[in-house]
Amino acid sequence: MIAFRQLELQRGGEPLIEHADLILHDGQKVGIVGANGAGKSSLFKLILGELSADRGEVELTSGSRIAHMAQEIDALDRSLVDYVLDGDAALREVERLLEAARASGDDLRQAELLGQFEVHDGYSARARAEQLLVGLGFSQQVLGHSLSAFSGGWRMRANLARTLFTPSDLLLLDEPTNHLDLDALLWLEQWLIRYPGTLLLISHDRDFLDAVCDRIIHFDERRLELYRGNYSAFERLRAERLASREAERAQQQARRAELEDFVRRFRAKASKARQAQSRLKMLERMEEIAPLRAASPFSFRLLGSDKVSFPLLALDRARVGYSDQGLLENVRLTLAPGDRIGLLGPNGAGKSTLIKALTGQLALLDGERVEGEHLALGYFAQHQVDALDMSSTPHQHVLRLSPSASDQEIRDFLGGFDFRGDAAFGRVGEFSGGEKARLALALIAWRRPNLLLLDEPTNHLDLEMRAALTEALAGFEGAVVIVSHDRHLLRASVDQFWCVADGRVAPFDGDLDDYHAWLRQRLGEGSAKTPRDEDEAAPRVDKRELRRAAADRRERLKPLTRARDTAERRMTELQNEIDALEARLGDETLYLPERKQELVELTRKRGELAVALEAAEQGWLEAEEALERASEE
């Protein structure tokens, strides 16, 4: 159990958390969401004891073992497998003592330590460590390589594997999917679903949160709000609460206006002075309901070039790779205006390499790359972020692209990416990873491309910016090619998929669920291949069979759907009754002595309805969870 009791936290004099009072039970999987800088990572530090609360306390179940990802990786000389095995400190200590007992010839001590070794699952430890590494994308051939041989992103994967290997009752993960591709993300998703302990997960991937979490903690104006259900359930419930809160605020403002008008008119009249003072006290006691903030600080569009060509870009019999080492063979593809393509494929198959070949930054080993006459290319990859001038400002970056642009035009444009006011003149080197990624996307948008090539564009972006990017891509009239592990972005932004695997690029006839099934089959059989050309047997879907299966599935789920809809209607009815009661409670004459009994009755009824609404919400959540479980079967 984790309990936050009247918790308050400040950083740099600014309040991050106020009056947090909630309990998380063992085995729950909790997603933590909120704006960047709201205090999500600080909450982890409180749990780990790295920060002290300014007020209140954090309570953990006695003896809880906590696993979390370290920020720094020091043991770069360790092999991948040994680095992961080091995550189980107790097992490593038993191994050390066992080696010493063997060296001294102490057979009795050896026997005792071998028993402890078995208790720690030592005989399966290496196999388990290797399984974690392979699941997160490492090939079997590199498991003996030292950590120093890998880039920062791959080291983070190794760090994640070590964290998962660490024996724990409580697992803290802060953005674990940032450096994963789709295949590794799907594997991690299944691992976390099976994890038996308590999970606290900070993530900006809504599909990942939906699949893994059964509770959501939302950082809302320095408060911690706990919601039952996954992220989609949280969105629905929060929208309802916000709508109710706004209605309450409008009602309160109207009531305030009435009271203030009465005081203004009658304060000086002796006959009404007592009533005026009474209303003044009511105003003082009336707690201000804060207005709703804008749902998102981002408001931008991706405008395409006025000129287009057909085709925009083509590869003909291309051989793609590095230093005469072909990774993809006989690639033949054409990108036309309006194409919206998502690239799928196993880790290391060549998706990013193909994107680089399309940009022209990676020369073809053979074949031809043909640009349309009016091609205007926009390319985003992680190294685009690294290429930003860290000593300059967002305003200067845009001004270099368009020296004749007016100051107001640049400010208005950057404001859509939430670089408002002084932020447009902030030094890029002091920005967070998310802010740098936003700036890189803004510079692409400023150029008005007609072909966008996006390689993991959502890394380091928060949920609001991901939603804004998804919406902007939906309105973009040019062509798009995307590599991403964000399934929500892919579903909303692309019309077709290409599969990059086994040295080939071919259309994939199916959706992301079909790809997941194909991937499981491939990993299980070890022999599944993508087609050598479009005429061979690619992973395809029988559309008629899909329609029949969908109809059967709808029929099977009908009782559960009916139960959920009934609960939802009941919630609406109860909320309407509560709204009507609150309107009656807003009548100032109700508080006169002669109407005391009516006030008591209405207040009692309001409490009963609130209890009934909470029960209806619980019933709806249970029905929704049952429906989700049945949908997965």
Automatic annotation (TrEMBL):
Domain ABC transporter: 2-246, 312-527
Record's keyword terms, sorted: ATP-binding, Coiled coil, Nucleotide-binding, Repeat
CDD domains: ABCF_EF-3
SUPFAM superfamilies given in the database record: P-loop containing nucleoside triphosphate hydrolases (SSF52540)
GO molecular function: ATP binding; ATP hydrolysis activity
One Pfam family hit: ABC_tran
Record carries keyword Flavoprotein: no
Record InterPro entries: AAA+_ATPase (IPR003593), ABC_tran_Xtn (IPR032781), ABC_transporter-like_ATP-bd (IPR003439), ABC_transporter-like_CS (IPR017871), ABCF (IPR050611), P-loop_NTPase (IPR027417)
SMART domains per UniProt: AAA
Regions annotated as coiled coil: 557-633
Assigned protein family: Belongs to the ABC transporter superfamily. ABCF family. YheS subfamily.
Name of this chain's protein: Probable ATP-binding protein YheS
Lineage: Bacteria, Pseudomonadati, Pseudomonadota, Gammaproteobacteria, Oceanospirillales
